[in-house]
Amino acid sequence: MTNQILTLVAVLIGALASFLSTSWLNRSEQRNDLDRSWRFTRLESYRNYLRDAKTLEAAHILNRDLWRLDWFARGQLDDNDRPGWQDAMRRYMVAIDTFNEAARRDMGVPGTYSRREPEIPPNVLYEQERRNS
Fold first, then answer.
1. CA dist 55 to 39, 60, 102, Å?
2. Higher model confidence: residue 50 or residue 100?
């Protein structure tokens, strides 16, 4: 009787393990399929909506200005150069606003767009708070 119970338990454990692994693989496949379909949908959207030359140019400028901020963040540009950082941040804000306006116009999105304001760098905020306390 004990052997039969052990055999039954082993079969149940095997069946459960098989079910769980199959479920996990199916879920993984579904996630990959969904990811693939979203990538395709995004690509189609970009191809269909960003045809306007002004929007493309705004996207290129935004990309360039974002890389400049990245270089500051990575220390490839002098991160103690406060005027350089502020100029890079200002250019980025203008570029993202210009891109958003161009994309909205190109896609026919109605309404207005509120422009971004540059934020004070965290180290400057820290120094200001430290002096005021």
1. 21, 9, 5
2. 100
Q: CA angle, corner 61, sides to 57 and 65, nearest 5?
A: 170
- Enter the tokens of residue 51: 């045809």
E-state strands within the chain: none
Contact 99, 59 (CB under 8 A): yes
Enter the DSSP assignment of 79.
Answer: T
Reference 50, options 115, 111, 96, 104; nearest CA is: 104
pTM above 0.70, yes or no: no
Q: What is the H or E stretch that residue 54 is in? A: helix 53-73
CA distance 113 to 26: 43
